[in-house]
Amino acid sequence: MPINYYIYFCLALFSIGVVGVLTRRNAIIIFMCIELMLNAVNLLLVAFSKMHHGAAAAGATVPSTVGADGQIFVFFIMVVAAAEVSVGLAIIVMMYRNIHSVDVNFLNRLKN
Amino acid sequence: MSIIQILFYLLSGLAVFAALMVLLSKNPVHSVLWLIVVFFAISGHYIMLNAQFLAIVNLIVYAGAIMVLFLFVIMLMNLNSSAEPGKHIWMKLAGVVAGGCFLIMLVSLASQAPEMTNKTVQMKEGNVGLIKELGKVLFSDFVLPFELTSALFLSAMVGAVVLGKKDSAQ
Fold this sequence. Notes:
The complex is a heterodimer of chains A (112) and B (170). By secondary structure, chain A is an all-alpha fold. Chain A has one domain (3-107): Helix Hairpins (Orthogonal Bundle). Chain A is built from 3 helices and no strands. In chain A, helix 1 (3-23) packs antiparallel against helix 2 and helix 2 runs antiparallel to helix 3. The longest helix of chain A is centred in the middle third of the chain and has 33 residues, at 27-59. Chain B is 72% helix and 0% strand. Chain B folds into 3 domains: 1-83, NADH-ubiquinone/plastoquinone oxidoreductase chain 6, subunit NuoJ (Four Helix Bundle (Hemerythrin (Met), subunit A), Up-down Bundle), CATH 1.20.120.1200; 85-116; 127-163. Chain B has 170 residues and is an all-alpha fold. In chain B, helix 1 (3-24) packs antiparallel against helix 2 (28-48) and helix 2 runs antiparallel to helix 3 (52-77). Chains A and B meet through helix 1, helix 2 and helix 3 of A and helix 1, helix 2, helix 3, helix 4 and helix 5 of B.
């Protein structure tokens, strides 16, 4: 598969996430769109990792681990996303408890 | 047209459609369910790239844990009948136009990049995505970040508990 197809697909997913963050007002939906963007980047990282691995494995006789660090990076992104979601959802629950809404437009000032 | 290409187009179309439905559905619960469809499609992509470890971790962590957390919070707040007051139509249009310009700019950049021409992705072979190889790299070159991850999780856990606690002072 040419790498360009993966790039276009991941850019489409990322842009859908950007449009969601810009147009929706529900804080939970905005949060889910951020997850969508993270996943688009993850898929592109894995595709690039396999691209480099394929290029390195074409000439080599011994099995190489070229491209493994890209997948390790994806693993760490998932770890950070899990921690981020737990804290972010706690913040959303606290916000709902205070203003009884998850509309981000109520949060347009820092005081009160 | 080989089976790989058919699967690629099928999974990509499914993922883009489900991602659009995440945006367009009014009910937050439906958005969560469509997002799970996106994650399953992306896991299918990982399997096609022979990144088996990441495919399973994606399913367990994202579709399993994170999405259940989202559903739990939505049902806790009883947002099922979300009365989201409609944003002004021009604001929505501006958001869509901005996102579209972003997409067009990035696609034109990627299609002109000389580094990306005539490069192919290795499909369904190559053992770099197996648990054995990733484990060796993770526990030799990336030991320190792996251990720091535990501190990150501990602080996230403490933060979530502190934020979610009822304020007894007021």
